Model the fold of this input.
Amino acid sequence: MRILVVNAGSSSLKLRLLGEGDAPLAAADLPPGVADASLAEALDRFGRVDAVGHRIVHGGVEFRDPVIVDDGLVARIAALGELAPLHQPAAVAALRAARTALPAVPHVACFDTAFHARLPPAAATYALPAAWRGRFGLRRFGFHGLSHAHASRRAAELLGRAEADVHCITCHLGAGASLAAVRGGRSVDTTMGFTPLEGLVMATRSGSVDPGLLLWLQQRAGVAVDELADGLEHRSGLTGLAGTADMREVLRRAAADDAAAVLARDVYVHRLSAGIAAMAAALPRVDAVVFTGGVGENAAEIRARALAGVPFLAVELDAEANMRGSGDRVIGLAGDSSTRALVVSSREDLEIARQVRSVLA
Done:
C-alpha cells in the first residue's frame, strides 16, 4: 500500500509518500493555503496513491481514534477550529484539497489529541467549577500525540521489549514542546492542556503561567485580550527571554556568557527537568526518557542538563553517543539505574501511516 501523508501546519504543507516497509517514495513541502491546482500538480509527480492519512491537530472530545473521512466528518472537524485556530483551518483546507485531487481513494483523519484522549480523570480534569466544565467541555486535551506515540513505540523497539512492558517519558522538544508519561503504550499524563500554551517553555510560547498574573495584566495593567494572546503565543518563551526562538542561537550565546541567553537556557531546562519529574510521578517506574523533535534530537547540551536536573533517575549519559551520535539510539548507560535515555527521530508520518493501515485493515 502506497500511503500519502498530509501534514498541514501554519507555515507549510508537508506531503510524504510511503511505500512498503515505510520506504520513502516521494516528498514535497508546499506553502500554506495551497490551491487545489497546486496540490494536484504536486501529486501528479508522486504516482499511484492508495490511501491518504491526514494530521489533524484537534479532535476535541469526539475523536479519540483515527477515522475514515466523509463529507460530514470534514464539517465536524472544521467546527473544532476555535479550539486550534492556528492549525485546524489549514488542516481542513488541505483535507478538502486532497479529497478533490484524490477522490477515489480512502482518506483517514489522524488526530494529535487522540493519544491523550483516554487520560485518567485525575490527569485530564481541571479543578474548575463543575458548571464551567460541563457547559464548555473544559478538560486537558494534550497535543503532539502522533509524535509521542511514535517515540514511545520506537523506544520499546530500541530496548528490545514489548510496548506493553515499557513505561517511558517522551519529550517532544521543538518550536512547540510537551512531555508525556506513557504507561505500556498509553498516555497517562502530559504537559499541554486545553490549549498548546500549557506546560513547558517553548520557542515563542510562554508555557504555564500563573492565571492570577494574567488576570492582573487585564484588570490592573489594562492589557487587552488580543495583546495578551499575541504576547503569550508569539512573544514569550525563548523569544521573550533571549530575543530569539532558535535554541541553537540561545546555546551559542549562552556559551559566550550572554546574560539573557543564559537565563533563557536555564529557565527552559528548569521547567523541562521539573516536567520530567512530574511525568515520572505518573508511572510505576521509568524505563526510558526519550528525546524527540528538533531540539530534542539536536541539542545535546539540553538533553544533558535536563537529565542532570532529575538525579533520582540516575541516568548516566554516554557522552560520545549524546554529543556526536546520530539517528535513533540509546544515549544513557545502564549504571545503577534501570532508566535509559534515548534519542528518536520525530516521524509523525510513520505513525499516521500506521494508523491508516490499522483503520483500513
